[in-house]
Design a protein that fits this description.
4 copies of one chain form a homotetramer.
Chain A lengths: L10 E6 L15 H16 L9 E2 L2 E8 L8 E10 L3 E10 L2 E11 L1 E3 L5 E3 L4 H8 L4
Antiparallel strand pairs in A: 1-4, 2-7, 3-6, 4-5, 5-6, 7-8
Chain lengths: 140, 140, 140, 140
Amino acid sequence: MKPLTLEPGEFTYTRSVQFAETDLAGIVHFSAYFRYMEEAEHALWRAVGLSVAGDRLHWPRVAAYCDYTNPLRFEDEITVKVRAGFGRRRIQYGFEIRRADTVAATGAITSVCTRANAAGTLESIEIPQELVARLRGALR
Amino acid sequence: MKPLTLEPGEFTYTRSVQFAETDLAGIVHFSAYFRYMEEAEHALWRAVGLSVAGDRLHWPRVAAYCDYTNPLRFEDEITVKVRAGFGRRRIQYGFEIRRADTVAATGAITSVCTRANAAGTLESIEIPQELVARLRGALR
Amino acid sequence: MKPLTLEPGEFTYTRSVQFAETDLAGIVHFSAYFRYMEEAEHALWRAVGLSVAGDRLHWPRVAAYCDYTNPLRFEDEITVKVRAGFGRRRIQYGFEIRRADTVAATGAITSVCTRANAAGTLESIEIPQELVARLRGALR
Amino acid sequence: MKPLTLEPGEFTYTRSVQFAETDLAGIVHFSAYFRYMEEAEHALWRAVGLSVAGDRLHWPRVAAYCDYTNPLRFEDEITVKVRAGFGRRRIQYGFEIRRADTVAATGAITSVCTRANAAGTLESIEIPQELVARLRGALR
């Protein structure tokens, strides 16, 4: 699947690193960054009154990656910048995770818009344009 | 709720400590022990062909505790011994987590037998006796 | 170990339920409550300029429990009230987790004050009184 | 950083999906796949008597990705195939996660070989050739 072009607007989410997210190397475990990205995505939806779990649509992930540039540590205050690109049936989110002025990681998550059919199987559908319009409202 | 008496039979589950379960103190995070206990419980059900997610029943937890006696570390091979006590509407599991001959922790989890009513709310019901009989088959 | 008496002052921590903390039953996994309690404990320390990872002391857990009274769901806004009781060598935290006016759970975590000796082994020591005085400053 | 060529040999790791790894959508949370990949990597090291935490070297991740093709569910038995490519200072692992004959996901993790210098900062170093030789012994 080819990457989508991210639009210029961005949303910012902040939180601090929790103890249980570190590992014996003394830094944040690499899998926790994907949770940080997801939290930022969901905060973006909530910022315009939406929820990924809020209606009959489901948004399974089809791809995720992260490039790690600087470690994060317990009690670091982090900022996650979110941007988005909208395809017909999928949304690609781009993320930058910072600790103060230091970029700790960049990443992306791609989700497909699906709806359960009569048999209960998820089928991809076109993203409702009103939803795209609302999400764009949180990306400035 | 008063504690149930655990029956004498026991079930044994083994696994090794994973890297992501440790924290910056270099030992397993205390919340991971509850996952070890749950994994052992579910392995007990599977050992007699059952699944906690297998029919119309749901088993929400009403209580859980753990006493920590010795730390666990990355790549430790651990053994979880499970026992059980059966009430009319709840099951109490007792656990002992060992690393070789050392007891690392003891704990308990209590679950209530529930079924969704017409409105979708979970209501507690009596545990089907056939289910108790089958679980006892794994506890020797 | 006998329970400590909790002092009357309390500290309040708030956060929202994240997607990854739910399980296939549609509610928050029971192990996540222990992370909520720990986050509240660490926020209490930070509120008076302290960190559990901040000096030569280590605070391994010796006991933890949780009683679950009402389920929590994705995007619930939760409040964690923390109280504390101070022994000579241990701190017992008591927690109440609420969603608006509903009590979702109550629990406790007990930690022992330790310091690494020359051989690198953790040995329990008496809690420095200045530390107790500072923590009490966050519990009003 | 350009991708490394994966060598033909592979290592196989198996485990089952645990309850706490699912989310309210009823399937395995996308972040758990990175833990499955890491577990397989560490099992590969152990298979030849090595540990990623076993000597003075540290292996921070610099990149990770996953492409999701089919959902995984509670109690699925999964197989993780690992391959590896060796650079001068980094190892790239390639993974395929299957449930029976169905490919659930493919992914990769890249780690850099580092050692703490006198100031305690991690510096990248060349991978000891003996270590590469031993890891190759598990990849057939």
